[in-house]
Amino acid sequence: MMQRVDVHLDERSYPIHIGSGSLSQAHLFKPHLSGNQVAVISNDTVAPLYLDDLLTALGGADVDVFTLPDGEQYKTLDSYAAIMDFLLAKRHNRSTTLVALGGGVVGDITGFVAATFQRGVGFIQVPTTLLAQVDSAVGGKTGVNHPSGKNMIGAFYQPRCVIADSAVFATLPEREYRAGLAEVLKYGVIADPEFFDWIEQAGEKLLDKDPDTLVWAVRRSCEIKAGVVEDDERETGLRAILNFGHTFGHAIETLTNYRTYLHGEAVAIGMVMAADLSVRVGSLQLKDAQRIKRVLQSLDLPVCPPTELSDDVMHRAMGMDKKVVDGKLRLVLAETIGRVIVTEEIDASALRATLNAGDVLCDG
Amino acid sequence: MMQRVDVHLDERSYPIHIGSGSLSQAHLFKPHLSGNQVAVISNDTVAPLYLDDLLTALGGADVDVFTLPDGEQYKTLDSYAAIMDFLLAKRHNRSTTLVALGGGVVGDITGFVAATFQRGVGFIQVPTTLLAQVDSAVGGKTGVNHPSGKNMIGAFYQPRCVIADSAVFATLPEREYRAGLAEVLKYGVIADPEFFDWIEQAGEKLLDKDPDTLVWAVRRSCEIKAGVVEDDERETGLRAILNFGHTFGHAIETLTNYRTYLHGEAVAIGMVMAADLSVRVGSLQLKDAQRIKRVLQSLDLPVCPPTELSDDVMHRAMGMDKKVVDGKLRLVLAETIGRVIVTEEIDASALRATLNAGDVLCDG
Fold first, then answer.
1. Where among B152, B171, B190 does a domain terminate?
2. Is A183 a catalytic site residue?
3. pTM as predicted
4. Are B309 and B255 in contact (CB under 8 A)?
């Protein structure tokens, strides 16, 4: 059964279609194609699995396909330039429509190309990972990485439509699937205690990919994200709550060269660190922090930062994070399960204590 | 005396300050700086002339300066990437402000960097050519060229403020100055017969750079452009009238590798060709077309396409222009002086006749 969540952003509003088999349904794509030209951007892992189904759904359109190698290391300005070259060589024009078939890397690059190809063309997200379905494909953040940090180059640019097919999780590696669950749990922590309870209960079913459980997890995550994005499309304030766990997580990813952890895994660790810091500054009760950690563990996610990263190194890596405003570090802290705050008033010694691995939550 | 024109685009509204000495006035910059970090992007011709004055105006800010080589051939994705590298090496963050000090190339690249550095930061345009003051610095078109065509990569992104200093024309090469007058005349043709009359009368004073005449020419041009942009920020319709003469002009620039003509010169020729085509399809009276040509000539601008470009070659070059919508060529035709229309219904034989150099207007 197909579910629909709408992201309301005036003339940039769009639907998210969630359900098994959605990526093969022509009628979901049709209303969002600007003209007859379509370019599908995918990667060499996903394309062999789902490109044929997608091409069937795109039926009569004049489709060109560009395939990137799979991996975060290809989320670069070079890949961006290669796609631009491809579109121009194939003579795509301002009324082309791009379709991103893949995970966050493909979606973010394709969105950034769409935002800037001839000053903006339409695009459709077909996210094929759990992480992309509940996070990166929704909300219009697009971009590429730079050697100095993630997503340093990009734009806010909304898709015309998101098609989240839950059948794709059957072929998603277990580890990637579980990493996506970290972001699902994040929505409970930042905005919805009942959803957090539900995930805590549904843990086994989620790990087993029970179809109805999955559709609800994706749907509720998208609803929460849509609500936040509707209030603050360009992250001038509230939207920063979506970064709960991410400032720590990004620093860990950067310092391990994006090789040791999947994004969701780094975020899982980052959420525990953010919870730990929240306890240290007196914002969150210890039992709630421990509960966050326990649910992440029950989802087979890592919850401790790598011991080889010194607090100095972490501190510096966090300072270069783009969430720094005019030299001030902004962090998202939990107040309770279901409510977080964004603050620039960080107690330096509490932060140091959290960064020194032997902390309460990881010892406990 | 300082003049002010406002571009009304809701929360993206901004002022244009026009007058002699404006780029040295700190109070014009101050309200538009997001934080203390500022990056000035300029080129190696303009920086030696005006950078010191600008730095004085930026007073207490923490300023880094990046200088490009001068020239359209540097309006590339490579220059864009080099500026991104520079900003990140200097640890600029989301509350930095970019200042573009230069002509259209510097303004367009800087605007595109501002649109996409950490998903968007503020920027100020300080255009130092007539062309940039009346056209490229106003309206939010940003971008870089691609070997396959001009401005193929870019974004719509409005500056926080435009500071148009008329004193800079004293150091602007005569030829570049005159090229800018082509765009000034264009505003008369597309929207304001009285302004056209005024330019026709003021020809000598314009060529002599009479200060008051200049300020009015820039001011009225900016007002007309602002009005069009306010109605159609993202060029879904009306804004296309600003391209009068540009589809022909871009083709000429592309085919001569941007070496033979300045943009305004190519536009001057393009306006005559567009007027010629307008006469051939019965939309414009011959005497009006001839008047457009005569005024351009009086401003010492070229009015005939280069004879070595065959109609086949021109036709193909126009077909690759990004103003083609789903395979259809859109052109702007004049109906009278002061009114133009955008059409996709082009009489193929009339277009061929215009493209065959020996046309009515160039013979007459």
1. B171
2. yes
3. 0.92
4. yes
